[in-house]
């Protein structure tokens, strides 16, 4: 499933109409019919429905929906918010068809009191007020209407395309429909995967209105959801003849006197995720503590200074296939020196947490690297690396991530709900798993371990990273689906949930793998 911006959606619509030859009216009819099909399955015949329609084509979708619901015998009122003469183009045509079918329109203007009075008597609201064409702050009377709908908590609200009032590409929200369900036309919009806008969507359902894929290919950048099916299809299969070396010799670098746990979690997660052989490089001060925790790894104690890396690491002797550096390593000159040495190795490198701290000192080395560099910042780290505010990052996660990954030639994993993986050539993948149980110290360390293990087992780095991000979130989902609340989950629980998550993904993937 692809994700689009509002301007891409307009370009897709235009292309479909002008180049492919479908009429705007037929697209609107398809949209309304597709939305109505979902509604007919969900709304009970005894429920009273109000369709609230605005000036634009979103209102046009609403006219079609109202007509279909009425034709199926649903008690449905169509409230037209603007004066009728403001409705133009395909929407005007849809309104004419509605009226020619013998159905009545309720005009909001002049009947504002009746509208407020009636609102208590409805069970379901269909929000066809504003779609992706919203411009600037909400104007009257939309603002007041939306506030009234949101106040009526007992109403079930279905939004068409986007909840009215939110910017389609994401950003700040002042007033917007708080939908229970949003039925999006053809492709989800960026705002469904950025915050705070995503909070207004409720359940997201995408309906197909028959736009040919060619129109998408011609008019939209590559941005897609990475779903469970994609993971199941691309998980690598172990060969019977394989041995531990087949699955990579990984190196995890991290730890300091104040933070011994992070690197342990990274290493455990890497082992649970299939790393063939794993070595941990830690400051020798903390080595005795770390070494008692994982019997399965080898150790490479490094010289330490005040409990942190002093700066030396013998990477030649270690001879590894991939490296993850950062968890708990501290923000010292010694740590910086270790990371610089790591970046000079011709193997894929994952940099996380403290290994991102001296970003400006690594940029030039990273741009010269030929092997993959994978950076996994959370929004705070991303903001710091770019010298902008966290709000700036959150407002334009997709744009910022793409610009950063392409200009530095890195794989960027911009974490958070709906983590975005961006490849060096600018392709973007939105993760669909995970929940707020992961909002706890240590979650990121676990992810780093999974990424390290997956990139060693998979030829395709993008698929490996996307799968790792998905498995991480899915493990947390599995925990809160049974036995855990979102509050009590620990990062170590997430590690222990990796086996059941992989087990179920492999079961789902078995049919794909047989086909290979
Ligand atoms: N072929 C297609 O294109 C298809 C499109 N489709 C559907 O069309 C939707 C996009 O339609 P759109 O472009 O007409 O915009 P839309 O969101 O309905 O509203 C625009 C109107 O809103 C108003 N308005 C704007 N800002 C405002 C504000 N801040 N506060 C208050 N009012 C504001 C402004 O009205 P005005 O100010 O001029 O009175 C403007 O005219 C899309 O989401 C999908 O549902 C589907 O049917 C598939 C085929
Ligand atoms: N509300 C949330 N929903 C989904 N995933 C989340 C949420 N909060 C955090 N995460 C995930 O948890 C991880 C947190 O990483 P990070 O902030 O680096 O943690 P730490 O540094 O404490 O290990 C990321 O993978 C992030 O995507
Ligand atoms: K809407």
From TrEMBL:
Query: One GO BP annotation here?
Result: nicotinamide nucleotide metabolic process
Keyword terms? ATP-binding, Isomerase, Lyase, Metal-binding, Multifunctional enzyme, NAD, NADP, Nucleotide-binding, Potassium
SUPFAM superfamilies recorded: Ribokinase-like, YjeF N-terminal domain-like
Binding locations of (6S)-NADPHX: 57-61, 131-137, 142, 161, 262, 328, 378, 445
Q: Which reaction does it catalyse?
A: (6S)-NADHX + ADP = AMP + phosphate + NADH + H(+); (6R)-NADPHX = (6S)-NADPHX; (6S)-NADPHX + ADP = AMP + phosphate + NADPH + H(+); (6R)-NADHX = (6S)-NADHX
Q: Which residues bind K(+)?
A: 58, 127, 164
What residue stretches are annotated with the YjeF C-terminal domain? 227-505
Cofactor, free-text remark: Binds 1 potassium ion per subunit.
The superkingdom listed in its UniProt entry is Bacteria
InterPro entries linked to this entry: Carbohydrate_kinase_pred_CS, CARKD, Nnr, Ribokinase-like, YjeF_N_dom, YjeF_N_dom_sf
- GO molecular function ontology, one term from the record: ATP binding
Cofactor(s) named in the record: Mg(2+); K(+)
- Signal peptide annotation: none
Subunit structure comment from the entry: Homotetramer.
HAMAP family, alphabetized: NADHX_dehydratase (MF_01965), NADHX_epimerase (MF_01966)
Q: What name has this protein been given in UniProt?
A: Bifunctional NAD(P)H-hydrate repair enzyme
Which organism is this protein's natural source?
A: Anoxybacillus kestanbolensis
> Highest lineage ranks of the organism?
Bacteria, Bacillati, Bacillota, Bacilli, Bacillales
């Amino acid at each position: 499933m692809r994700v689009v911006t509002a301007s891409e959606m307009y370009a897709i619509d235009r292309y479909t109409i002008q180049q492919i030859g479908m009429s705007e009216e037929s697209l609107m009819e398809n949209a309304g019919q597709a939305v109505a099909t979902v509604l007919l399955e969900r709304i009970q015949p005894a429920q009273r429905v109000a369709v609230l329609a605005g000036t634009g084509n979103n209102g046009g979708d609403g006219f079609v929906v109202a007509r279909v619901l009425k034709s199926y015998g649903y008690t449905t009122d169509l409230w037209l918010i603007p004066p009728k003469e403001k409705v133009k183009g395909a929407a005007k045509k849809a309104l004419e068809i509605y009226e020619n079918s013998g159905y009545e329109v309720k005009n909001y203007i002049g009947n504002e009191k009746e509208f407020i009075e009636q609102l208590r008597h409805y069970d379901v609201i269909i929000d066809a007020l504003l779609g992706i064409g919203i411009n600037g702050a909400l104007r009257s009377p939309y603002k007041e209407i939306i506030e009234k709908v949101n106040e009526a908590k007992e109403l079930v609200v279905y939004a068409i395309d986007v909840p009215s009032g939110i910017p389609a590409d994401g950003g700040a929200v002042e007033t917007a429909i708080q939908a229970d369900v949003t039925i999006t036309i053809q492709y989800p919009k960026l705002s469904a995967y950025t915050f705070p806008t995503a909070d207004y969507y409720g359940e997201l359902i995408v309906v197909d209105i028959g736009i040919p894929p060619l129109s998408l290919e011609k008019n939209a950048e590559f941005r897609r959801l990475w779903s469970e099916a994609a993971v199941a299809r691309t998980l690598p299969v172990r060969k019977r003849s394989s041995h531990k070396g087949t699955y990579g010799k990984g190196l995890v670098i991290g730890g300091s006197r104040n933070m011994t746990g992070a690197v342990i979690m990274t290493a455990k997660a890497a082992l649970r995720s299939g790393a063939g052989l794993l070595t941990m490089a830690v400051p020798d001060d903390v080595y005795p503590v770390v070494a008692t925790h994982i019997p399965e790894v080898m150790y490479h104690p490094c010289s330490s200074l005040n409990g942190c890396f002093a700066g030396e690491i013998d990477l030649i002797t270690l001879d590894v296939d991939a490296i993850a550096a950062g968890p708990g390593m501290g923000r010292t000159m010694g740590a910086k020196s270790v990371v610089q040495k790591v970046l000079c190795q011709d193997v894929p490198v994952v940099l996380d947490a403290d290994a991102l701290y001296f970003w400006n000192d690594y940029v030039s080395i990273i741009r010269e690297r030929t092997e993959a560099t994978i950076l996994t910042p959370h929004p705070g780290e991303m903001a710091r690396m770019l010298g902008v505010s966290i709000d700036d990052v959150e407002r334009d996660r997709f744009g910022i991530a793409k610009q950063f990954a392409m200009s530095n030639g890195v794989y960027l994993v911009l974490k958070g709900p709906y983590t975005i993986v961006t490849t060096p050539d600018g392709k973007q993948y939105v993760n669909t798993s995970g929940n707020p149980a992961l909002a706890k110290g240590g979650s990121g360390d676990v992810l780093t371990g999974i990424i390290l293990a997956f990139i060693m087992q998979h030829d395709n780095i993008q698929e490996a990273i996307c799968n790792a991000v998905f498995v991480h979130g899915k493990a947390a989902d599995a925990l809160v689906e049974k036995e855990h609340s979102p509050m009590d989950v620990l990062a170590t629980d997430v590690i222990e949930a990796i086996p059941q998550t992989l087990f179920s993904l492999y079961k789902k993937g078995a049919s794909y793998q047989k086909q290979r």
